Amino acid sequence: MIIFKKTILTIFVSLLLTANVFADKIRIGTEGAYPPWNAKNESGKLIGFEIELANILCIYMGAECTLVEQDWDGMIPGLRLKKYDAIMAGMSITEERMKTINFSQGYASDGASLAVMKGSALEGMDTSAINLSNTDSATKKILADLTTALAGKTVCVQTATIHQNFLESGLVGKPTVRTYKTQDEVNLDLAAGRCDAGLADILAITDFAEKSGKPVVLTGPVYSGGPFGAGVGVGIRKDDTDLLKRFNEAIDTAREQGKISELAIKWFGFDASM
Question: How far apart, in whole angstroms, are the C-alpha atoms of residue 9 and residue 137?
Fold first, then answer.
């Protein structure tokens, strides 16, 4: 009888432990093709700011996390189809995306800019920072100047991004917008002269310029706000409010302990933490 009770107790404890293990498993979707946010090294291992940040957040949450690679244009559909539980892929927090998914608080931000090859007619444009949440007269003038400069030009961007949305919004007229599956493809065509300009996060552009040695230069305003969103955060399904709370608490802890700043300086060369 005693042995029987011990056996039942052992099974019960095992079931509880198993349930806890399953409850604490989190799958995180990432692209692995947007350095220095997320990328792969020569051996195919995922590396980058968000890869290391994800590991730290999972430790704070007491969770066993798995990184799941996903092409960018299928990132939000994959989350909704439950291929993974969260997104950490350099995804900006925008009103448009929040109609479909929730976001944690932001953890980093760097702004966006046009990139051209040195010697381009577009080089040397005003590099003032503009926040498109404001539409004052100064911002309107900068956008009007950009409309003139980009008329008849081809601007290359990664598909399904805030950069594509901005160029197609009408705020800078109607330049020809050429889309690519990855940022790497944008970079290669820009360097090959098949684009007059590229539009992307500043960090993605400077990372390419530094690693490739190509004479790529930033030009025009540094964009933030409005269609460019309110920084980068973790994307989570609308109904997963408990996981959203856990990520927010983990981000708070990482910020308070200086971990986000530390990783930003390591991967970006400056503190882009929020």
Answer: 73
Model pTM score: 0.87
Mean confidence (pLDDT) of the chain = 92
pLDDT tens sequence across 100-144: 999 999 999 999 999 999 999 999 998 889 999 988 999 999 999
